């Protein structure tokens, strides 16, 4: 029986006809009373966060033209009228098809949407509970690529030519070092010898210069910057310039 009307109220019988004059049929009786009001297809709904759910509220013909509402229990300011769309933060849409039911759709469920609601047509109300479940965590597996290690180049083989060149370079370097050390040593020895013997030589030269100066006192000469020239080692003559 669909599209019940108030005049459809009354007693109804259903049974099985067995037949026969002395055999009674098997029957049962049902009283149906059609009233004006509303009902909900499913009064408890649940969905995951981010998903959508739809509530269907049915009403009788008498409330076809009545105002349809969807409200959160205890919050009159949250009521939305059928045919109007909720605010952006609620994501709720109501639609009345005027054929005996109107639907409420949560387009994107959020955890805060969990709670009690009620749908109404005129003075008739029906409670509805919505349960939002957390979205399950998804794990992403990361596969690391194996790293390839480049094989090092093999060492070059030692040949006779390379070994001879290496020996020659080594010997030459050693000779240069030794020669430098010998030169430095000779310079040090020469310097010490000069410091030890320069004083007697200078004293001898000074005496000779004084004698010659007395002999050639008339010669104007710069004795401080004079140059002494020995003609030979056996000669006692000294020339000053």
Automatic annotation (TrEMBL):
<dbReference type="InterPro" id="IPR003599">
    <property type="entry name" value="Ig_sub"/>
</dbReference>
<dbReference type="InterPro" id="IPR007110">
    <property type="entry name" value="Ig-like_dom"/>
</dbReference>
<dbReference type="InterPro" id="IPR013106">
    <property type="entry name" value="Ig_V-set"/>
</dbReference>
<dbReference type="GO" id="GO:0004888">
    <property type="term" value="F:transmembrane signaling receptor activity"/>
</dbReference>
<dbReference type="InterPro" id="IPR050671">
    <property type="entry name" value="CD300_family_receptors"/>
</dbReference>
<feature type="domain" description="Ig-like">
    <location>
        <begin position="49"/>
        <end position="121"/>
    </location>
</feature>
<keyword id="KW-0472">Membrane</keyword>
<keyword id="KW-0812">Transmembrane</keyword>
<keyword id="KW-1133">Transmembrane helix</keyword>
<feature type="transmembrane region" description="Helical">
    <location>
        <begin position="168"/>
        <end position="190"/>
    </location>
</feature>
<dbReference type="InterPro" id="IPR036179">
    <property type="entry name" value="Ig-like_dom_sf"/>
</dbReference>
<dbReference type="Pfam" id="PF07686">
    <property type="entry name" value="V-set"/>
</dbReference>
<dbReference type="InterPro" id="IPR013783">
    <property type="entry name" value="Ig-like_fold"/>
</dbReference>
<dbReference type="GO" id="GO:0005886">
    <property type="term" value="C:plasma membrane"/>
</dbReference>
<protein>
    <recommendedName>
        <fullName>Ig-like domain-containing protein</fullName>
    </recommendedName>
</protein>
